[in-house]
Amino acid sequence: MSIPFIYKYKPTSFQDFEIQDEIVQILHTLISMNNLNILFIGHSGSGKTSIINTLIKQYYGNSIPSDNILEINSLKEQGIQYYRTEVKTFCQTRCSIPNKKKIVILDDIDNINEQSQQVFRNCIDKYQNNVHFISSCSNIQKVIDSLQSRNIIIKLKQLTYPQISNILEKIKIKENISIDTDAQEFIISVCNGSIRILLNYLEKFKILDQPITYELANNICTNISFVIFNNYTNYIINNELTKAIDTLYNLFDKGYSVMDIYDNYLLFIKSTTLINETQKYEIIKLLCKYITIFHNIHEDEIELALFTNNLYQLLSS
């Protein structure tokens, strides 16, 4: 049975990551210092979890002793009280490997409340001689200052176009996947900086086992074909407002929610060449406004017509 790409191309060393050399040097230095109280910052898909797993592997060696690692990733659902006793018991015993510490991993620490963060701050103060605390977040503003000050903060930048292209090229050659140049550019633009998404696309291409053209990539890599959004935007530019509204209503009738349409149109706007960067900025602001309406007030298909009218006014001005 073939191994899923997400596991097949899982990094096993820092050299497998397309990250800055400075970060790799810092991580090696922290391992040698036996000081891994680290807070990783990065958007979804930036590789936070993969880097943490690789860091642990580098710290302990090839064999990772599960009894020395406590991973907490459901605090939002369970609450800190659920884990308080377990964390305390775990931290009070020493690591089974000489001259090493135990490790507590807390994913998405920005998703838990201030009280829960305070508990982990206290744990760091009390058990730092015996335990490393490694955490990750997407929004540093939601992490309390006292917790930030007790960690070494490492920010993972979004991968650049050349970095993603380099990863794609390596896998494409290794898997013998044929991808047209324009299709490759499109794939990189819609994966939105996420290697996880890129790997999922490449695995689909491998299963398909045929040359990947721009048209084929367009159909495979988007929930809603960008051809539809291309036509929709052209209708607005050409003052064909009725056709534009009908296009979105047809998508709604096919089962796509209003949010599905907004989310996919946002992806389209980021990659299209139909409009300039200034217009893109204004359209993204408009989309954010309607997405906020959905979250705070309601979702109704009439919003699609109102959005289209606002978009028409924006592009006509």
Helix content: 55-70%
Name the shape in a single word: globular
Strand tally: 5
Strand content: 5-15%
Query: What is the element string, with H for helices and E for strands?
Result: HHEHEHHEHEHEHHHHHHHHH
Largest beta sheet: strand ordering: 2-3-4-1-5
Question: CATH fold name of the largest domain, please?
Answer: Rossmann fold
The name of the CATH superfamily of the largest domain reads P-loop containing nucleotide triphosphate hydrolases
In DSSP terms (H or I, runs of 4 or more residues), the helix count works out at: 16
Averaging pLDDT over every residue, what do you get? 88
> Which structural class matches the secondary elements?
alpha/beta
User: Which CATH top level class of the largest domain fits?
Assistant: Alpha Beta
Poorly predicted parts: none
> What summary fits the major beta sheet?
5 strands, parallel
Distance between the termini: 57 Å
In CATH, the architecture of the largest domain is 3-Layer(aba) Sandwich
- Write down the domain tally: 3
- Give the radius of gyration: 23 Å
Short description:
This protein has 317 residues and is an alpha/beta fold. The protein has 16 helices and five strands. It has helices spanning 5-8, 21-33, 48-60, 75-78, 80-92, 114-127, 145-148, 161-175, 181-190, 195-208, 214-220, 226-237, 241-253, 258-271, 277-296, 302-316, and strands spanning 38-41, 69-72, 102-106, 131-137, 152-155.
